[in-house]
Structure prediction request, 446 residues.
Amino acid sequence: MSDTPIYPDVVNWAVPLFIAAILAELLWIVIKGRGGRYETRDALTSLLMGAGNVAESIVLGFVAYGFFMVLWEITPLDLGHSVWVIALCFVLDDLRYYWVHRFGHRVRWVWASHVNHHSSQHYNLTTALRQTWTGTFTFMMVVRAPLILLGFHPAMVLFVGGLNLIYQFWIHTEAIGRLPRWVEAVMNTPSHHRVHHGRNPRYLDCNYAGVFIIWDKMFGTFVPELECEKVDYGLVHNLGTFNPLRVAFHEWIGIWRDVTQPGLTWRERLNYCVMPPGWSHDDSRGTSQTIKARYLATHPEEAGTPGLSVPSGHNP
Amino acid sequence: MPLSILLPMVILGIAGIALLLHVLGLSRRAVLADTAAARAAWLREFPEDSPIRVILCHDHSAALIETARGRGVVWPMGADTTARYLDGARVRQRKGGLTLDLPDYTAPRIRLTLSPEEATSWCALLEARV
Prediction:
């Protein structure tokens, strides 16, 4: 095994940059009168969620790191620490991010952690910091296992994951419209990510990319931002509270209440944990696919347009 | 980064940004311009359940909604709005309006600012049907 260089904790070092960028965006919006919206309690909740996320990583970070170090002891492979290995690790970790993020929207257990990031009706740089407090409990660290087993050192994997998170900070803005075509073609941009935060039926469950939008194009989940349909930010059912504790835990509470309902089979109880958000044993709610299908039932002329190609045979 | 630097920076950063936003007048709550706006705010949350009746309160901060499925309320969430059905709600009259306690972890308490006459009439309406 090679000597391990010290990788900086880039997310913590980026905190001054986050604060400065938020102030710059706010100043731009106030002076120009366009480019986004801010509201005090919404921003405060987002910032407190960000602080809580850092605290959670300090308190529970050892769980994931311990798991990675066990894998590192097992694997016979060691790719070293060259710049090219770090670059390759960054790209592969971004592919890992795409799948974790996709699971985060399609598996309710993971959504319970990720939902808070989508719980703001605003889309500005503070929204980027509205991060989970419960990521450890999703066990999504297992998706990083292949990287460690392939010989990427755990410290490197966490380092590139931090860079990935920092990249995603600046795309949470309405102050930037569209970037040059080659950038929009390859990279995740403010335009692509605005779509991801949309609650419009068309924009549900798409654009899961972290840094490279190519993953969405490869796996068929890309939807472009349309001039004709402004993004409506937030959740399908928006929260009625700014309390960070409720924001952080509400979906976990929802799962608990659903799973402990009387009269369900064990399969139905399990499905409340692992099926897509909105699934219910009696079809009384709606998943994103149901919402899209219901929308198409009243707007049939939009069938086949981006984000609205409902799988055949789906019953609303 | 050492915690001795990170912690004060995070606390001061959050407090400073919140204070700045408030000073800039960005704490204003959403106002429902008219009944059409209240109706739109309701349909934004429940697009398949059109209001039959909309009662807008005097300062346009909230609206009572009646649909085929039941009663609901639209109220401001900061600069935006949200809405809930009032199934299982507990209604309490207080100075300055009504408090609605809902069996909903994501909206446990809604404080409506109403005139005394409105508070009395809304309370009677809700208690008759809730």
